[in-house]
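Input record, target 12 of the design panel.
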């Protein structure tokens, strides 16, 4: 039986199957991301409860109810109550070099696409979209979308490929196409956001109404925002580890001439392939990218729970295999 030569179709099949396994492995990076997302859910709830107390301290429920009655009676001139999910919180407990009190304030947005830098913006920054895509990663993957695109393209210039996937993710999540229209959100974005609206008195612009809080409360709001940013950071680290492995995988697959080499590589990595789709034959290949060596190299990139001694032993095993 003659050897089946490797081609682009086979390489893509191997690459996608092995990459899928990499993404599902319980590595340290993956677990850190999942834990960060779980931690965010916990602190989001408690911090919003604090925000509710602070906002209602400045805008008591009785005052809100009275103003709503005035609006009903007098119309638009008394239309001064609105619901919002983002707030400027400020405290004045710090002092400058001359002993004068200084105000410390920042913008805190509890929405799915809320900013991570404390600055109010009418457009979603990349970090905000990164968070939204990472938060609903499983739902996006289930629909055949790429929730990891921003992490995968980290450090690269904007390009049509990146834009296409980001737009598709945002559309699925129901993000409003208008940067100024929060009411245009639908689906998952709307469902997420509607949990975090509070009644405020004043104009619809956050920056026009700084809400007083204590320094301790302000610091808790900052810790919440850091937890949100940590989801992005841990997701980036995890995807970086996968990209590192898949980049090496691409090089190896490109060097393979026969289908059997790809099957051997998958077997070395502990991955069972459908033999009805791929036929096994004998193999030859470049020394550094022979299936056993490439498998050991990729395994060494995984940060599974290992002792320092185990990692050293694996590295020595790989180096010896090259000799």
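The sequence produced for target 12 reads:
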């Amino acid at each position: 039986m003659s050897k089946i030569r490797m081609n682009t179709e086979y390489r893509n099949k191997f690459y996608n199957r092995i990459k899928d396994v990499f993404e599902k492995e319980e590595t340290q990076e993956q677990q850190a991301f999942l834990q960060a997302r779980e931690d965010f859910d916990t602190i989001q709830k408690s911090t919003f409860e604090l925000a509710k107390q602070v906002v209602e301290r400045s805008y008591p429920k009785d005052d809100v109810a009275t103003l709503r009655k005035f609006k009903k009676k007098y119309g638009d001139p008394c239309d001064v109550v609105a619901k919002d999910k983002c707030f400027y919180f400020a405290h004045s407990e710090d002092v400058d070099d001359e002993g004068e009190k200084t105000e410390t304030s920042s913008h805190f947005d509890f929405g799915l696409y809320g900013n991570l830098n404390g600055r109010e913006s009418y457009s979603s920054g990349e970090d905000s979209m990164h968070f939204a895509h990472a938060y609903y990663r499983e739902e996006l993957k289930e629909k055949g979308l790429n929730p990891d695109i921003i992490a995968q393209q980290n450090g690269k210039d904007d390009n049509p490929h990146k834009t296409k996937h980001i737009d598709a993710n945002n559309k699925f999540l129901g993000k409003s196409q208008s940067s100024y229209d929060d009411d245009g959100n639908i689906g998952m974005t709307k469902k997420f956001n509607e949990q975090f609206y509070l009644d405020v008195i004043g104009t619809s612009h956050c920056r026009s109404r700084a809400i007083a809080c204590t320094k301790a409360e302000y610091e808790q709001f900052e810790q919440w925002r850091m937890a949100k940013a940590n989801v992005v950071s841990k997701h980036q680290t995890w995807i970086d580890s996968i990209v590192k492995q898949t980049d090496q995988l691409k090089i190896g697959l490109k060097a393979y001439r026969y289908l059997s080499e790809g099957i051997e590589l998958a077997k070395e990595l502990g991955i069972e392939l459908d033999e009805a789709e791929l036929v096994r034959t004998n193999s030859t290949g470049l020394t550094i990218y022979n299936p056993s060596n490439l498998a050991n190299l990729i395994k060494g990139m995984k940060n599974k729970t290992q002792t320092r001694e185990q990692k050293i032993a694996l590295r020595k095993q790989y180096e010896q295999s090259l000799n």
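The longest strand covers residues 86-95.
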